[in-house]
Please model this.
Amino acid sequence: MFERFAEAARRAVTDAAAEARRMGHDHLGTEHLLLGMLAQPQDPAALVLGRFGLDPEAGRRAVLRLRGGSGAERDGAALASIGIDLDAVRAAVEASFGPGALDGPVPGRRPRRGGPRFTAHGRGAMALALRAATGLKARRIEAGHLLLGVLREGGGTGVRLLRAEGVDLVELERALEAALVGGLPRAS
Model:
C-alpha cells in the first residue's frame, strides 16, 4: 500500500515514526500520525489542522498530556524546574562526542529493529486512508487522506487528542474533504 502514498504522505508517516521515537514511545499510533502531518506546515492537511488551532508544538504537548513521554522527557522537565536546560547539555555533549552520543539502549529493553510498530488504531487509520483516497477518486494517498483515516478510525489517541483540544471533528472532516476535492491554497 505504501507505494500508493504521495511524497507528503510518506513524509508524514516517516515524521510520525521519528516523533514516536523522540517521545520514547515504542508504538506508532494515530497521535503520531497527526504529529507527522503537522510537521509539514505547507501541506493541506497541516493547513486545515492549523485552522482548527493545531500546530506541531501544541500537538506534541497534547500527545504528552494524553500518553506521557519517556523517562527522559520527565527527567528533562524535572531538571528544567531547577534551572538545568537539558537541550543545552545535549548540544554540548553532541558537540564534543558527536550526534546521538547520549542516545543509547534503554536498560532492560531490547532495541526494536525498524522503529516503532503501528498500533491497531494506526493500522486501521492507514487502511481507512486508502479507502478515503479511493472514495474521493484520488490516484495517490495524500496526507489529507491519512487525516481522514485517523478521523474515520475514531478510536485512537489521535481522535482523543483532537477532542481534548476542542476540535469539532465533523467540521474538521468537512474542511478536509473540501480541501482534498477542491484544493486548498498553499500558505505563502
Residues 69 and 154 are 23 Å apart (CA to CA).
